Amino acid sequence: MSNQALDRTGARKAPLFGLPAVAVVALLLYLPFVWTTYVSFTDYDGLASPVWSGLANYKAMFSDPDLIGALVNTLLWVVGMVTLPVALGLLIAVLTYGHKWGTWLRLPFLLPYAISGVAVGVIWGFVLQPDGALGQALGFFGLPGAHTGWLQAGPGNTLMMIVAVTWQAAGVNALLFVVGLQSIPAEPLEAARLDGAEGFSLFRHHLWPQLRPITTVVIGLSIVGSLKTFDVVWVMTQGGPGTSSETLALSMYKETFVLNDYGQGAAIALFLSLVTFAASILYLRYQLGDAREQG
């Protein structure tokens, strides 16, 4: 058999080697998504057969004040996670990069990332409870706020939980920014220093533009992660008091596994998936378009 015939035979058989992987992806990803989409249009309690209800779940979702509040809290998480952990991570990276003890200085900020979101919720729940560590410290120094219920009212409870997650996420963001700093060629920076650039001027005009690719990655991950926020909120407040700190992910969980309204939970899950997908696509398109204009 000629080499050309062997090549044609191999080309025809090559797709067969990908079939197992395609089957696994279809089984674990696509089929559950199709099933969830179908359930979102039904009245289903997880036991009896689903009963088609059309758009009833979506109408109920957008007319429910609690779910509207969960959407607002989710957007608050997006804003908070795109600003605080990213800004703090960038600050840590810039201040410690090139320092003799830079690795050791970043280590305390990186260690919290090694623990789970549940552990973060437990730790900060102890810190922020009315008679917790923060209140006792403020009382010891005679400062105001010793008896403040940090998690007892919204939106302040959401803001405090964003601070808790910032404590966990800032370190890994700093590590990513350090990787970006290490990829910047040394020669242009040396030339800029010879021209008198230093401090904030050096950062703004020479470092920051070079960090654009890694910044895109960090902010993109922060957006997706904040839209799916669940574990910290569940451990610290369970969405309360009432529903004041619920996120869409938490509402989805409650509707499905607490209230046994699988149809409503599936509608929220599908809506959250579409929001996450749309936010990711729009953000990447904006970044790529802006990069082309500058390029």
Automatic annotation (TrEMBL):
Keywords: Cell membrane, Membrane, Transmembrane, Transmembrane helix, Transport. One of its GO terms (biological process) is transmembrane transport. SUPFAM superfamilies: MetI-like (SSF161098). Signal peptide: none annotated. It is a multi-pass membrane protein. Pfam families: BPD_transp_1. This is Sugar ABC transporter permease.
